[in-house]
Amino acid sequence: MRIGAPWDTDHSDRTRLAAAAGELDTDRVAVLTVTIGRRRGVVALWERVCVPLLRELRGSDGVGVAVEHALSEGIRAGLDRLARTVGRPGAPAGVLLAGADEEAHCLALHALRVALRERGQGSLFLGAAVPWPALRGAARRIRPHTVVVWAQTTRTGRRPPLDALAADCRWARVYGAGPGWSTVVPPVGSAVDGAIPPVGSAVDGAIPPVGSAVDGVLPPASAWLSSLPVALLACRVPGDVNHIRNETVPYR
Known about the structure:
The protein is an alpha/beta fold. It folds into two domains: 6-83, Methyltransferase, Methionine Synthase (B12-binding Domains), Chain A, domain 1 (Orthogonal Bundle); 92-235, Cobalamin-binding domain (Rossmann fold), CATH 3.40.50.280. Helices cover 44% and strands 8% of the residues. It has helices at residues 6-22, 26-40, 42-56, 62-83, 107-118, 132-142, 159-168, 228-235; strands spanning 95-99, 124-125, 146-150, 173-177, 223-225. Helix 1 (6-22) runs antiparallel to helix 2 (26-40) and helix 5 crosses helix 8 (228-235). The chain is globular and about 45 Å long. It starts with 5 loop residues before the first helix and ends in a 17-residue tail after the last helix.
């Protein structure tokens, strides 16, 4: 394999991050996260470096868990630093991001927030474990065009409150994101009463927006977002014709 090929770069970046996490050096992990993000962009940083490494370093003992926490915290800190330096975001009210009620893990939403900013799109991130009434209240107050709710496990990825949120916010596109929704919400590209076109399908060269309306009605809790590129596509401003390629790496 030639030097400088994408696999080489991925492997090198993951190796350096893993070494810093292995030393429990969260500051070094954060610095590397910023460096890689600036060099490669947030999507490549997350999909090709962070997600594979987070899977690989899942702790099975005391030391392993400490390493996993150091890695996660360092990546979070690095993403927060990147958020202050990349792009020129628009109004934050357009996209609302939140961890589902009782969901403590939402590192991927940090990545989505920064990736949106990198593309000049603002968002409001409420953090982890947002109670459903609070999320509904926030949505009513800022009236975003897109709401993304993260669930890491099926315990927090519960369909009824997501459907209730979508029904209460008929002006918005509401999505579940993360593996917690995979068994209760159809993946992007599945038809819900024929409403959602396949991701990546082209009409005159344009990718139809995810969750597009049928007779002006948006399907409630229409799909779950399986990757960062798919999430970016779902969060785009209505009417935007920019293309986002659908990657295959699961959105952690």
